[in-house]
Amino acid sequence: MLFPSPAATSLSAACAGAVLFALGGAACAATSAPDWTFSGFGTLGVVHSDERQADYASSSMKASGAGRSAGWSRHVDSKLGGQLDLHLDARWSAVLQVVTEQRLDYSYRPRVEWANLTYQATPELALRVGRIAMPMFIAADYRKVGYAYPWVRPPIEVYSVLPLGSSDGVDLNWRWNGETLRSTTQVLFGRTDLPLYGGARLRGHAIGGLSHTVEQGAFSARASLVRARLSLSLFPELFDALDKFGAAGRDLGRRLEVEDKRASALSVGLHYDPGQWFVTGEAGSSKVGGYLGSTRSAYLGGGWRQGSLTPYAGYARVWGRRPPGPDSLAPDGLAPYQAAVGAKLNTALAALMRTVPSQSTFSAGLRWDAAPNLAFKLQHECVTTRAGSRGKFINPVPGYQSGRTAQVSSAALDFVF
Amino acid sequence: MKLSSRARLLAAVLLAACAALAQAGDLVVIVSARSPVESLRPEQVAAIFLAQSPRFPNGAVASALDQAVGSPERDQFYLRVAGKTPALLKVYWSKMVFTGRGQPPRELAGSAAVRRAVADDPALIGYIGREALDPSVRPVLLLH
Description:
The complex is a heterodimer.
Chain A: H1 6-29, E1 35-49, E2 55-56, E3 66-67, E4 72-73, E5 79-87, E6 92-101, E7 111-120, E8 125-133, H2 156-159, E9 166-177, E10 182-195, E11 201-216, E12 219-232, H3 236-243, H4 246-256, E13 261-272, E14 277-288, E15 294-304, E16 309-321, H5 336-353, E17 359-371, E18 374-385, E19 405-416
Antiparallel strand pairs in A: 1-4, 1-5, 1-19, 2-3, 5-6, 6-7, 7-8, 8-9, 9-10, 10-11, 11-12, 12-13, 13-14, 14-15, 15-16, 16-17, 17-18, 18-19
Chain B: H1 2-24, E1 27-32, H2 42-49, E2 63-67, H3 72-82, H4 86-97, E3 106-108, H5 111-120, E4 124-129, E5 137-143
Parallel strand pairs in B: 2-3, 2-4
Antiparallel strand pairs in B: 1-4, 1-5
Helix pairs in contact in B: 2-3
């Protein structure tokens, strides 16, 4: 097992930044001055949910959301991003993108989303080194840029199946154009280490990704495959207690703990956009060892452009499957004090199993392009958790009841500059 | 009688709309007179301007030149070759820029400036008002 130390990882991020600026300096010294561009994006959003027993959140990487913590939340979608592009010459360029949004520790500490150096070997072939967003689904690599998609947020049932946002490593983009069909193939290798809260971290190593995009006229499609080995050091007390609970507890803990477990995700997306209207459909499946379980997910959405107004609607669904094998301790033949501990552990394990998401969402909304760099969106969703799970909701009350439908309303202002 | 006055009003409105369109004028996509490129189809032009194709169909490397944001030439050009309104074009470039896949073409203000730059460099491609054409550049696509 390869576990990079936190210091090593922050060092690699710092190095990426240092490389950007060092190259900037070097290029300044050269005769042709490099071009640099600063651009940015952001979302100001509020969300209301009438479900009081858990928080509606845009991803499981958030500390709070709307519903239980507060009826209205500004933390679900609000974010601000800035990007520096450095164009050194015809072959070398660099990009640094920093985004601030609510994290698992409630802070808005900025995070480097992209930091890489591109070598354009030929007009068709580019090699990048540094931090690269995972090329999953149609919109995963620009999922923070609300302005770039019609809805308030990409469907959470599909887009949060794998907790991997980016990879530190290399990728290769190869563009090959036919007479009318244009294709882009991307291959990626890397690792990631993301501090969550307290001492908890998400680590991924041996990350491999393959994505292929084709475009022909109004039609585009993307298929992607990602594999990795994941470690997610959440719930240490539970797994410590299981480890001390005899052979049965130890086996159960080792099987369920996400510690160097295999993870994979496959997705296929189709998009048709002749200008006046558009329709998008994506389907994906993910499989992660340990308690994260496996999922199948899909969505279908579309909209109609009428001047600066775009009404849209969609349906999204995720079907979760719990990890195979028993997911609780058998109470038979235990001494009374052991049985009491076992019952407590089983309660915690049941709560853990509710995190394997099954959920569906009907959504309808309106996007108003008020100016060429400003969009205002209103969206309403009916979100139903299913199969005993808490779906994509976070912070559930202890006696959480699955199967209820939450009415979720969102307003967002997206901008780019 | 009332109907015919309505019809007359409608005709007047249509005529005014046609006049407005004619005023927007024809656009021509141009390359240098020294370039071997003879003609291009709208989708080939769109692919170069949207950074989807780095080359002319003959294999030579192509580099696009835009007119200024908000200019009628630019808005008409993207509407006609790619079916994109200014807002949809902004959406498109947001996806490209914030995933590090590309930057929009370099901008020059006015048809004359674009024509002068294109005339000097066979790798460049631009678009100008038809009335700004001269022998230093070759029209490869006419957009009505």
